[in-house]
Amino acid sequence: YSFFPGKPRWPKRKRDLRYAFAPQNNLTDDVKEVFARAFARWANVTPLNFTRSESLIGVDIVIGFFVGDHGDGEPFDGAMGTLAHASSPPTGMFHLDGDEDWLISDGEISRRILPVTSVVDLESVAVHEIGHLLGLGHSSVEDAIMFPAISGGDRKVELAKDDIEGIQHLYGGNPNGDGKTNSGAESGVDW
Amino acid sequence: KFYHNVSSIPPLQFLNATRSAWETFEKLAGCHVGDKADGLSKLKQYFRRFGYISAASVVDNFTDDFDDVLRSAVNTYQRNFNLKVTGKLDASTLRQIVKPRCGNPDMIDGTSEMNAGKKLRTTER
Fold first, then answer.
1. Residue B96 pLDDT more than 60?
2. Is A100 a catalytic residue?
């Protein structure tokens, strides 16, 4: 696992983080539910809690879908290519490429390889980018959520040991007992 | 667009992703230092975007020459992605390059904490 330079993290007084969606995206509840599941995976292994807010006022994290040049100096590049990016703590900026075809998968499936390579599994990207929002950099461990690339159609949403060790290096474990790390075999792989 | 299950995904031609922006890199297969090939300048932009070529070390417009700066970027990228470190654009390296990915860089200010940045601890046996 790796961190941003200087190892930024959310300050101790910030364990209950609030997030909201850019209103102009008019996202449906089932799309917002995907992000709630993604946040819960990190909450499960840390002392952090995440709460959705309907208003942008006073939130810690703002999530939005944008197309092309969207004013942050990191333009998106159309379908595939770069999928999303997120800032290090405590900025809380999470942008996804509005040119992608996003797949909303059944939450029960944790790993899947699809022959359809031109859609992107939304939850897989959300779990990865939330890792950045919390302070993790990229990992060379191919099974890790923080590995930088994912093939179209693939789904990888369970935190690997590498991800959990990295995030707990920053925040410690979940005081109510850590989530278990399942290898693909245990959690079941839907090919 | 959001698709709610695999069966609702239309045939490829109706999807946005006709071709990824980076699939043009596949024609650079086999290139190595000393070569000149159309498209190497775009690959250098790719490597700069993800931190493998620091903004300070290049002039504004990249050339299509496979120079030492590009070889160094390819070497580091191959280490970070657990690929055989050849410094060349071999098939497995290009396959990894064209995959969709996170827009955050792998290297910041020329340093990486992925494989390439780890001091490999070897123990004398």
1. yes
2. no
Point out the catalytic residue in the list A108, A129, A158, A165. A129
Distances (CA, A) of A85 to A47, A129, A151, B63, B79: 24, 6, 16, 28, 23
pLDDT value, residue A153: 82
Q: CB distance from B102 to chain A under 8 Å? A: yes
The predicted model gives A141-156 an average pLDDT of 93
Nearest chain A residue to B104 by CA: give it: A85
DSSP A146: T
Count interface pairs A-B at CB distance under 8 A: 126
Q: Please, which residues bridge with residue A63 across strands?
A: A21, A94
**Residues sharing a CB contact under 8 Å with residue A188, sequence separation 6 or more, in sequence order:** A109, A110, A111
- ipTM of the modeled complex: 0.88
Q: Which letter, b or e, does each residue of B83-93 get, where b requires 16 or more Cβ atoms within 10 Å of its Cβ?
A: beeebbbbeeb
Side-chain-side CA neighbours of residue B100 (13 Å): 32
CB atoms within 10 A of CB A140: 23
Amino acid at A126: A
Cα separation values, A45 from A48, A94, A124, A175, Å: 8, 21, 17, 9
Residue B7 and residue B11: Cα distance in Å, rounded?
Answer: 10
